[in-house]
Design brief:
There is one protein chain. By secondary structure, the chain is an alpha/beta fold. It has two domains: 64 residues; 199 residues, Vaccinia Virus protein VP39 (Rossmann fold, 3-Layer(aba) Sandwich). It has twelve helices and nine strands. The strands form two sheets. A seven-stranded mixed sheet has the order 5-4-3-6-7-9-8, with helices on both faces. Strands 1-2 form a two-stranded antiparallel ribbon. Strand 1 and strand 2 form a beta hairpin.
Length: 292
């Protein structure tokens, strides 16, 4: 007699299989992928725990589980990732947004303040999928944003996300390296960036989900992880207005101390500070441009 697979029994099977394949989030992976196939959210899956799955649903789900078992990230399989409470499209070629990057948003919002009448000029360097620029445009309705990336494929993805969230008219996307597209000095209120900052040691220890699928261009910051951070700090000193803010995501620990020391030693910056991520690791370093 052929086994009848239900939502519940298929979730259990998929969880066990993904656990064997090394997934650290096997149950969640299974829920997200089965939810995609059945067009159900997590709550609906459990409400329909005993519902039998059709042949097409079974075939489609097994295909997705096979991809996940080969370490393909769930976000690429689904084509989307949640960030700051919203869903963004992602695809191979752009970095998958991480929850810890949400602290970068919080840092900028705290720096800009709650005055809804202000209209800050914000630059997102290395925009990738555009989640930082688009989120800030949504959280700061009067802000104007410039999003820069050296990858034309990333800019296509970022533009699509701006259109999806209806902020395309306030976010300008530009192809370029770091802050090179900005010719004027002292023209920006905020420079925000989640740049490539992993060093050789961190790159060698990445899980296959990351090392085999996510773009090295968006991860690797040179042998010491500082290859782009140092010039970005230098260029930010040029483009930021007095009292403007630089906010950077970094790898934590030793790199956080190194970046803070560089900023503290530069006469253009003051009020250098760090904030922790969800694991209590220093993840964001910020500094203010000195007042003239």
């Amino acid at each position: 007699m052929q086994q009848t697979w239900t939502v519940g029994s298929m979730l259990d099977w998929a969880t066990q299989w993904l656990n064997k394949k090394g997934s650290e989030s096997a149950r969640l992976d299974a829920q997200l992928l089965l939810g995609k196939v059945c067009s159900l959210d997590k709550v609906q899956l459990y409400v329909q725990f005993e519902r039998p799955l059709g042949d097409q649903e079974l075939n489609d789900f097994r295909e997705l589980i096979k991809r996940r078992a080969e370490h393909e990230p769930v976000a690429y399989i689904l084509g989307e990732k949640e960030f700051y409470g919203r869903h963004f499209s992602v695809s191979p070629g752009v970095l998958i947004p991480r929850p810890d990057t949400e602290h970068l948003i919080d840092t900028v919002l705290a720096a800009v303040g709650s005055n809804t009448e202000t209209a800050p000029n914000i630059v997102d360097v290395g925009t990738g999928s555009g989640v930082i620029a688009v989120t800030l445009a949504l959280e700061l309705p009067n802000a104007t944003l410039l999003a820069i990336d050296s990858s034309k494929d990333a800019l296509v993805q970022a533009t699509a996300n701006a259109e999806k969230h209806q902020v395309r008219e306030r976010v300008r996307f530009v192809h370029g390296n770091l802050l090179a597209p900005l010719e004027k000095s002292a023209c920006v209120d905020v420079v925000v960036s989640n740049p490539p900052y992993l060093d050789d040691e961190l790159m060698s220890s990445l899980a296959p989900d990351i090392s085999e699928y996510e773009p090295k261009l968006a991860l690797y910051g040179g042998s010491d992880g500082m290859e782009l951070l140092i010039p970005l700090i230098d260029e930010s000193a040029r483009v930021l207005r007095p009292s403007g803010v630089l906010a950077l995501e970094i790898s934590g620990g030793e790199q956080a101390r190194a970046v803070m020391k560089i900023l503290e030693d530069k006469p253009e910056f003051e009020n250098v500070r760090a904030s922790n991520d969800y694991q209590k690791i220093p993840r964001i370093v910020a500094a203010s441009r000195c007042k003239e």
